[in-house]
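Write out the 3D structure for:
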Amino acid sequence: MPVISTNTAANTAVRYLNSNSQDQTNSLAKLASGSRINKASDDAAGLAISTKIGTDVAALEQASTNASHAVSVLSTADGGASNIADIVERMKTLASESASGTVTDTERAYVQAEFEELQEEIDGICESTRYNGQSLLDGSSDFAVDDVETAAVVEGASATYTAASAVDTTGTITINDIEVTLTATSDGTNATMTVDEMVDQINSALNDEGEYTIVASNESGTLTLTSLAKGDNAEITLEDGSGTLNLASLGLTAGTTNGTTTEVDTTGADIVVGSTSADTINLSIDSLTCDSLGIADLDVSTEEGAAEALSVLDLAIDQISEARAEIGATMSRFEFRSAQIDTSVENLESAQSAIADVDIAAEQASLSSSSVKVQAAVAAASQANQMPQNLLSLIQ
C-alpha cells in the first residue's frame, strides 16, 4: 500500500546499491592487485595453500643458490686437485729418472732438490686453494672428510721356524699376486729361520717386484705385513705356495685382510637443497696434503729411495684420482639437483598462480556488470526518493 512514513523502496534500492558497490570495489581491488585473494574472506583455503606454496618457492630459490655455491666450492677444489695431480705426475717422472742407472748420485741430488720443492708446492696448493677464506684441500675446512682410515695388517709367524732337515728348506707364499720364496738355512741338522730373516726375505722379494706399498716388519717377535693403502680398498692376501714351508708352518693365515674406515657424523658439510632441513646433500672433500697422500717422507736421492717412490706415488695418484672422481660425482649431483629445483619452482609458481592470480578478462566482465548494477541502483534509489513526493500530490 502507498505510505509516506517508511520509504521501503528507497531502503531496498540502497541495500542493492551497497551490495553492488561492494562488488565493484572488490573487482577493482583484484584488478589493481592482480590477485584473486586480497583478504582471507575471499578464499580462506586458497589463501592458506597459496601462502604455503609461496614459502616453499622462496626456500627453493635459496636452495638453488646454495647448490650453485656448492658447485663453486667443488670447482675450486677440483682446480687445486688437478694441479696437484700434475705435480705428482712430475714427481713420478723425477723418481723414474733417479731410479735409472744412467744417472749418478750427483744428478740424483739435483733431482731430489726439485722433488722437495714439489712436495712443498703440494702443501702450498692445499693451503692456498680457498673458498670464502677456507682452505679446501688441507683437511682444515668445514668440508673436510673426518673419517678415520686404517691400513691393512696381517700378523703371524711368531718366534722361530725350525724343522729337522739336513739341507736348506724352501717354500713359497703369494702376497698380493707376488710370489715370495722363503728359505730356512740348515746347520746340517735343523733348518731354521727367524722372524727377522722372514722380514728381510719378504721385503727383498716385494721390492724386487717394485712393490713398496706392502712392508714386512718384526713387531715384538711377530711378523707383521702392513699395507700403506688405507681404508676399505686396502688388501693383503696371503696364499699357500709350494714347498716344505707353507702358511700353516709359518703361523700365517690365508685370506684377505682389509683396512677399515670409521665414518663419523661430522664429516663434510650438509648443504640444504630443498624446502626443508631434511633435503640436504653432503659436501665432503678429501685432504690432499703430502702427509695425507703418504709422500711426505719420500727421498729420491738414492736409487733405492727412487724405486720406493715410484711405487708409493702410484698410490698417491690413485688417491688423487679417487678424490677428484668423488668431487666430480658430487658436483654432478648438485647440478642435477639445481635443475630439479628450477623445475619445481616453475611448477609451484604455476600452481600458485592458478590459485591466487586473478583472471583479468573474467574480473573485468564482473566489474562491468557491477558498474551497471551500481548505476541502476543509484537510479532506482533516486526514483524511490521521489515516490513520497508523488504521494503527497494525492492530498493537495
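Residues 44-99 form the longest helix (56 residues).
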